[in-house]
Write a structure and sequence with these properties.
The chain has about 300 residues and is mainly α. It has one domain: MetI-like fold, CATH 1.10.3720.10. Helix content is about 70%, strand content about 0%. It has 13 helices and two strands, in the order αββαααααααααααα. A two-stranded antiparallel ribbon has the order 1-2. α3 crosses α12 and α10 packs antiparallel against α13. About 25% of the residues are buried.
């Protein structure tokens, strides 16, 4: 006699009331998120998509956009001012990104050592990072004044040459670089926090094994700082291409003086959009900036597995 298989029991579909109860937490969560979602849609996603459309049009803010296809992008390749602004920004990026990382790490290492008045030193170095960019530019324009600036006055006391900081194209770039590195305090704090997170046992074991200070720095300290270095590298790349306030103010309200040396990418984009009212042209510049920054960011992330070490 063979056993008869029991018929399969089909679960009953959930009742409508049960389905409504299961969706209730989701709806409550979306209700709490709705202010942010609406703000994101209205003030981030829509402007991004709008600029993509405007980059293919001739648009002056006061008229109807006229479709021109790739004309804006073709014109950019023949625009000598655009090439100058792009080159100035690339040179600035190539200098400020590695220098800011090295300087921030060096300051963090100095301020990590126990010393009297350490909190005061940290505050002094961090304070410039919270000064508004306009105030920073005004202070440094006074400090670097060739005739009565404090920097050249101090150089004269020691018999050193006094550079024409803001009146020479090459020295103007150096001046803007100094102003940028002066605001390194926030980066320094991130490295300082990472240093305090490194276990002391590692240094004690290395000291027992006879490792020198340089070997401990190279084998313990720097590897533990590499995740923060990657974060700061990406931030610095994005920030350098969007660098606007100080070059705009120091370069005499966006004129890029002297000799176009302070004509940076973001400054020229702003002038096209709001001075020349070439919104389509400016949108094309914005998307080229986005592509370049995205490419550099992808390269940094793809190569990070070779030099970034995460604690296990």
């Amino acid at each position: 006699m063979t056993a008869t298989a029991a018929p399969a029991v089909t679960p009953a579909p959930p009742k409508p009331r049960a389905r409504r109860r299961s969706r209730r937490p989701t709806m409550i969560g979306l209700a709490f998120l709705s202010p942010w979602l609406l703000g994101f849609l209205a003030f981030t996603l829509y402007p991004v998509l709008a600029t993509l459309y405007y980059s293919f049009t001739d648009y002056s803010l006061f008229g109807t956009p006229q479709w021109v296809g790739l004309d804006n992008y073709r014109e950019l390749t023949h625009d000598s001012t655009f090439v100058q602004a792009f080159t100035n920004t690339l040179v600035f990026t190539a200098l400020v990104v590695p220098l800011s990382i090295v300087l921030a790490i060096s300051l963090a290492l100095l301020l990590h050592r126990p010393a009297r008045g350490l909190a005061a030193y940290r505050t002094i170095i961090f304070a410039p990072s919270i000064v508004p960019a306009a105030a920073t530019a005004a202070i440094w324009m006074w400090l670097l004044n060739p005739q009565f600036g404090l920097v050249n006055g101090a150089l004269r006391l020691f018999g050193a040459p006094t550079p024409p900081w803001l009146s020479d194209p090459d020295w103007a770039k150096v001046s803007v670089l100094l102003m940028s590195l002066w605001m390194i305090g926030s980066d320094m704090l991130l490295y300082l926090a990472a240093l305090q997170d490194i276990p002391v046992d590692y240094y004690e074991a290395a000291a027992i094994d006879g490792a020198s200070a340089w070997q401990r720095l190279r084998s313990i300290t720097l590897p533990h700082l590499t995740p923060v270095m990657l974060f700061q590298l990406i931030n610095a790349l994005i920030w350098s291409f969007q660098y606007f306030s100080i070059p705009y103010i120091v370069g005499q309200q966006g004129q890029g003086k002297p000799a176009g040396s302070l004509n940076f990418y973001a400054v020229y984009l702003y002038k096209n959009a709001f001075s020349y009212l070439k919104m389509g042209y400016a949108s094309a510049m914005a998307w080229i900036m986005f592509i370049v920054v995205m490419a550099l960011t992808i390269i940094a992330i793809r190569t990070s597995n070779r030099w970034v070490h995460y604690a296990k």
